[in-house]
Write a structure and sequence with these properties.
Length: 214
């Protein structure tokens, strides 16, 4: 894969190469935990991949808009949703979030590992995600806090923000938003090829927008 390959081609090739799926199909654990006590409403899933989170939310009664740059991932996700019997509760939208962002406001905006191809988190996307949260709604961002122990070929200039830096990037007016959680935590992850189990660090940010916002 060379640098000049467009991002959507890169991600499509990555998904197409993994015929049995890149991800487990299960919802992300933090998403499942942090949404368990929320009343279902409308949800936006940014960088939805193969749809594990969107399908989980739809099963709980959410009406989900799920977005990814990869048509291959979105087609696969839509097939999973059909099989799960929740297709009518999910709208799949293709966006390159560095260029376009889905319209509307949502009771839940979730971005689970919304890392671009170079590993970065886009401040513009994070702020657009916050802006898309409806009054009374929740913003949930889960991201890597460091590289997996087996990855040694990361760009020298790639840094992983702390949860506090992610909160600062969001620029949430304090009179409108409450930060419910901003923490690092360890997570076990298997090496994609060898299956070797390792612990890496992730970060979670959960914020709630006040009801009088907007
Ligand atoms: C690390 S994966 C996470 C997938 C899923 N949220 C999960 O946790 O399993 C990042 C996802 O973001 C998508 N993505 C990367 N760059 C994007 C962009 N510019 N616009 C929209 N989606 C993008 C990729 O196709 C991929 O599905």
């Amino acid at each position: 894969m060379t640098e000049h390959v467009p991002d959507h081609v890169y991600w499509n090739e990555r998904y197409a190469a993994a015929t049995h799926g890149v991800w487990s199909g299960e919802p992300n654990a933090v998403l499942a935990r942090e949404t368990a006590d929320l009343s279902p409403g409308t949800a936006l899933d940014l960088g939805c991949g193969e749809g594990g989170d969107a399908i989980h939310l739809a099963r709980l009664g959410w009406r989900v808009t799920a977005v990814d740059i990869s048509d291959v991932a979105l087609e696969r996700a839509a097939q999973h949703a059909e099989r799960a019997g929740v297709a009518e509760r999910i709208e799949w939208q293709r966006h390159d979030l560095s260029e376009t962002f889905p319209a509307g406001s949502y009771d839940l905006v979730s971005a689970q590992f919304p890392h671009f191809r170079d590993g970065t988190l886009s401040p513009r996307v994070l702020r657009a995600a916050a802006a898309a949260v409806a009054p009374g709604g929740t913003l949930l961002i889960e991201a890597h806090g460091g590289p997996p122990p087996w990855q040694h070929d990361l760009p020298d200039d790639l840094t992983f923000p702390t949860p506090e830096e992610t909160v600062a990037t969001l620029q949430l007016p304090p009179d409108e938003w409450e930060i419910l959680l901003a923490e690092r935590h360890p997570r076990s992850q298997r090496h994609p090829h060898t299956g070797e189990l390792a612990t890496r660090e992730d970060q979670t940010v959960v914020a709630r927008r006040g009801r009088c916002a907007g």
